[in-house]
């Protein structure tokens, strides 16, 4: 066992999970980023390029907002201008998320197995073994959420269209608000257990269906602490990534203010499409956003080990066996 080894297989409270997340990064940042860039770097560059292209097309499109008032033509023009970029962003985001999750979990799996040593060949082997399952699970997970929202939306719209008087309309509006609140609560509830599913796929080597049921077993009696930890880590990463957004916000504000002062018919942000300084800041902010997301993945792994230890006492049993031998 190496010095400064962080034992993943033990119970932790919220503060310990957060501190050990940054402790693990501090001790292993060279290995983490080396393997991350080796396996995910090319896809990260592709995703940033797709995001930058989409941003460029969107900003350029805003310059044509005043050309016509035909909603159909506006929609078609928007799809033709930014649709390809949006599709590239969606596809590359799915692939990047699945590969990043698999890579980070594979690094941690090798670290835990070898008690502080990460072996490159093991990480490569784990990525090849679990990436397809993680990707498929990620797609199914996304489709489940998307279809749930679409179904709820269609039900609400159907009720609204069947309404024939004002009193019922007001009642339906209230019902819509309640339905939207219920949808948000359901999504929030499922975020905590389903965030563990990808860890279970790698650490327990289970299929999607088995991991899906296992994550709800692990979350039992620990939903609030899991949600609180995810919320705090998310807010913390959002605050840090927001620092990289400050130049973008300032430049957008200045361009909009200048446009209003000049009485331009097009939004001021349309000029940002050709502003290379703005695009450079956008690229840097996007890179920071995705790299900071690795912190969340590590904290989720620690949450998994905490819950697994709470229910199964895996680390405790291994320590007893080690002492007995």
Q: What is the total number of structural domains?
A: 1
| SSE succession | HHHHHHHHH
First-last Cα distance: 17 Å
Q: Please, how many helices?
A: 9
Strand segment count: 0
Describe the structure.
Helix content is 83%, strand content 0%. 24% of the residues are buried. It is mainly α. It has one domain (14-324).
Helix and strand arrangement:
Blueprint: H1 14-62, H2 71-113, H3 120-161, H4 166-194, H5 197-203, H6 208-219, H7 223-262, H8 276-312, H9 314-324
Overview in brief:
The protein has 325 residues and is mostly helical. The protein is 83% helix and 0% strand. It has 9 helices and no strands.
Provide tags for this entry.
single chain, 83% helix, mainly alpha
